[in-house]
Amino acid sequence: MRDLFLVLLLWVAAGFQLAHAQVEYTVLPGDTFARIARAHDVTLTELREANPGRGEALSPGDVVRIPQPMHLVRVLSASDPGALLHTVEAGQTLYAIANLYGLDVEQLEDWNPTAAEGLSIGDVLVVGTNPEPASPASLGAPVASEQFLPALRQDTLRALLMLPFMLEADTVDGGGYSAKTNRLREIALEFMHGAQWAARQLSDSGYTVALRVVDTEPDSLGMHLWGTADLEWADVVLGPLRKGPLDSVNSLLQNSVVPQWVLTPQNPVVWEKHPLAFSMEPNPIPGMEALGALASQQHAGDTVMMLETRGVDAGLEQAFRRGFLGSADDSTVLQSVAANAQFAEGLIAELDTSKVNPIAIPAGKSAQSLYAYVQTELQLADSFPVHVYGHPDSRTFEFLERRYLQRSHYTLPVSERTQWNDSAVAGQLEQFRSAHATDPSIYGFIAFDALVESARWQGLPWPLPAQAHFKLDWQWDEARARFVNEHWSLETFQKGSWEPVR
Questions:
Q1: Do 2-73 and 169-281+419-465 have matching folds?
Q2: What's the fold here for domain 284-414+490-500?
Q3: Which of 456, 472, 464, 466 is closest to 426 using CA atoms?
């Protein structure tokens, strides 16, 4: 313990500090330690260690500490050789400067502790580090070993599917399960059918695939019918699907060398715990940067109005800004407009009938009311020519009308799309239809594409089935020390359908 303390002390002395490692949670009626641990994706042991001396009984209003992954944050100063500096100009705020460099305000304040007291013209702030130029000796150097995708054994692809089937649930009138429970079981079956579909396709191409399905839920006696032997058997794991059992499952997965396909939307806690976790879901930041770059290129010399919520999707708004500023020429302007009540009273006043009015809304599902408002206002003022750039989730908003999408040349990033017209994909889909008398759901596509990609990691010479729905572009993320999917393309709604941006 003394040695660990000395190591941490040296890190801090070298210009690093520990990020906050705990958050506080107020106990609600019915809460238990086990329920709180599941809800926050930590193990029961980790939760107890963060709350020493507290008994089992919890009362509403009690405060429980939730452990968070600890990481070291670099603290820069203006004297550091690699520090990137910014001189404050008239009218600039911490928020504006943070947006300019794609930073969080908190990070800017960490690097510049006195900035929170106020800014003056001419103040010099640390806003990052200048990358060191590569030396001739380092050019062409081999990539670090941890930056390679997994290499699986070549005899048999052993895939472990961890899905919920025997769900514990309160029955409703009539003795059946609740609608939510029934739907979750259906999703588990759809994942399984997708994996079986991939196994058949791979077998037809010469691959040997073994599937083992385990139930992540306990039986009526509270016993789990899977264990470490299943993980030792597997070359790759698909699941688990539910967040409930993640504390127990991930305590085993994070110590294994088995690649894991995360079936639920990306969860930062899970992502940090298991270094070999992969997801079909792409990182949204590159897609929004590409959209910003396209907007600046298509509207050179114009002013693009970006509607900012500055809420949960602030990172995407910053990404759009980075992409825009990285491609814009000196005559192209990005006008930031706070999407608040004041804005909602005067969108039309900002538009000009004599030219195209580009409008960007980088926020996603959290800003559906904003999308609805913009559509309503622009339909009422149909004499204003507009181009709208939106979040990929907005493509699923049922209230957005085709006439509005057509008129606004609606453009957004697209991460996946079933290639129904591709002959290879069509043949694969026909096999699924023959077996199940329906097309695969999104869950079936996830399992299919994950298993096909896992087979690619075997490095065998035989052809692979076509990816049915997802496109993959693995990029090494240095900050998270893992590969993430960064595939995005851009599409515009024109002539009644979505067309790729050429």
A1: no
A2: Rossmann fold (3.40.50)
A3: 466
Give dist(CA 344, CA 372) in Å, integer.
Answer: 11
Instruction: Give me 310's structure tokens.
Output: 């500055």
Provide the CATH number for the domain formed by 77-129 in this structure. Answer: 3.10.350.10
Fold of 169-281+419-465: Rossmann fold (3.40.50)
Q: How far is 362 from 369, CA to CA, in rounded Å?
A: 14
Type of residue numbered 252: L
The answer, yes or no, to whether residue 79 has pLDDT greater than 60, is no
Checking 185-190 for CB contacts under 8 A at 24+ apart, the result is: 187/241, 187/441, 187/443, 188/163, 188/164, 188/241, 190/440, 190/441, 190/443, 190/444, 190/447
**Class of 2-73 in CATH:** alpha beta
Asked whether the bond before 240 is cis by omega within 30 degrees of 0, the reply is yes
Instruction: Find the angle CA(113)-CA(119)-CA(121) to the nearest 5 degrees.
Output: 135
DSSP, res 10: H
Residue pLDDT, tens place only, 145-175 = 446 889 898 889 999 999 888 765 555 555 6
Write the pLDDT tens digit of every residue in 421-476.
Answer: 777 888 899 999 998 999 999 999 999 999 999 999 999 888 999 999 988 999 98
Q: Is 421 exposed, middle or buried (0-12, 13-18, 19+ CB in 10 A)?
A: exposed
Residue 363 and residue 311 in contact, taking contact as beta carbons nearer than 8 Å: yes
Torsion of CA 24, 29, 33, 37, to 10 degrees: -60
pTM: 0.65
Nearest to 128 by CA among 110, 147, 144: 110
Element (H, E) at 269: helix 268-273
Distance CA 371, CA 365 (A): 9
